[in-house]
Specification:
Elements (H helix, E strand, L loop, with lengths): L1 H21 L3 E6 L4 E4 L1 H7 L3 H4 L4 H4 L5 H14 L3 E3 L25 E9 L5 E10 L1 H25 L1
Antiparallel strand pairs: 1-2, 1-5, 3-4, 4-5
């Protein structure tokens, strides 16, 4: 009976690892010095960098476009207060400059991103790592930008017609 239970747990662990690699969200685990500990399949396919190439490297060395001071200030409460932090595309279109591969939203050159930083509690109860989740919101951003552009055009047409 014990063997079946252990096999079940192994299968469950395998499924979890497979989901982690195939989920359509970027997952990155960072330590307190912002060194990468985990890099999933989404990150690999959008960055072109293998997990073995990034593991142990500092996020800011690999992505110089990330403002270290700004990102550190966003991450500090996640480490210290165990709060989640959010970065939305309306405030900053992207954190990591990935090209936009989506054929439907081909009007945008880069992937627009929403980011969530979550604390990861160790077995000792301390937060030594954080999980960064990167969501591709390019379709949403492109749609909103198109709508805003249409509203400006409509407003201009109304002004001309009325004035």
């Amino acid at each position: 009976m014990q063997d079946n239970h252990a096999l079940g747990e192994m299968a469950e662990f395998h499924w979890l690892m497979e989901m982690l690699q195939t989920v359509d969200v970027g997952l990155v685990v960072l330590d307190r010095t912002f060194r990468i500990k985990l890099w999933n399949g989404f990150m690999e396919s959008h960055s072109g960098m293998l997990p073995s190439q990034v593991r142990g490297k500092c996020l800011f060395d690999l992505f110089p476009e990330v403002d270290r001071k700004w990102f550190s200030s966003k991450a500090r409460p996640v480490f210290e207060l165990r709060n989640r932090a959010f970065m939305i595309w309306e405030q900053r279109p992207y954190l990591l400059k990935f090209p936009n591969y989506r054929p439907i939203t081909g009007t945008e050159d880069v992937m627009y991103q929403n980011i969530t930083l979550s604390p990861l509690t160790s077995t000792t109860g301390k937060v030594e790592d954080i999980c960064m989740m990167i969501y591709d919101v390019t379709d949403v951003a492109a749609g909103k930008k198109l709508l805003e552009s249409a509203q400006v055009t409509l407003s201009e047409l109304n002004e001309r017609a009325g004035g």
